[in-house]
Amino acid sequence: MSDLLFATNNQHKLREIQDILGHDFKILSLRDVGADVEIPETQETIEGNAVQKARFIHEMTGLNCFADDTGLEIESLQGRPGVYSARYAGENCSFDDNIDKILLELSGCENRKACFRTVICLIMDGHEYQFEGRVDGVITKERHGADGFGYDPVFLPDGFKQTFAEMPSYLKNGISHRGRAVDKMVKWQNSKMAK
User: Fold this and answer.
1) Is the pLDDT assigned to residue 18 strictly greater than 60?
2) What is the CATH number of the domain that holds 122?
3) What is the pTM of this model?
4) CA 103, 107, 109, 115: dihedral to nearest 10 degrees?
5) Nearest CA among 72, 30, 23 for reference residue 177
6) What is the domain range of residue 136?
7) Is the dihedral of CA 155, 145, 93, 174 positive or negative?
8) Rounded to whole angstroms, how far apart are CA atoms 133 and 116?
9) Which residues contact 62 (CB under 8 A, 6 or more apart)?
10) Any idea which residues carry the catalytic annotation?
11) pLDDT in tens, 69-89
12) How many domains does the chain have?
């Protein structure tokens, strides 16, 4: 698994995954393999989107690849924004638009419990595998920190006093939903190679 295609156009995710994996693995981007395409995300679940994206790129390139989908699930919003996390405030919205919307919806709400979930679908030698990572926390009442992306400035993971946006990348990547899912994928691959 030294070279593996990551089915995403999101440069933030690409950089984050490469940081998590370090130098042992080289993640190829769609640009690296000349696949400059919009990847469909039309499923109703995080798992469904991860599978759809991985299959789409695998069918196009024939390469071993993986795709992920991530959602922020807020308890008092009945699990929203969930699968719609990236476009919660509407098509072509910004990260700030999404944050503004959830802060408004949670205004005056005491229950601010939330979790981030990432599901990775890996297609390796024609077989599909799924790995899930989850981190629990709460939504803060205002933004804190300037790093990270997405909902990081308002997500405070359980057991910490810093939002994801206030943490150095090595700390966030070590405890994040995406980091946990990637870790499971790497451990699975290493155990397979050891046999």
Assistant:
1) yes
2) 3.90.950.10
3) 0.88
4) 0
5) 72
6) 3-194
7) negative
8) 8
9) none
10) 69
11) 999 999 999 999 999 999 999
12) 1
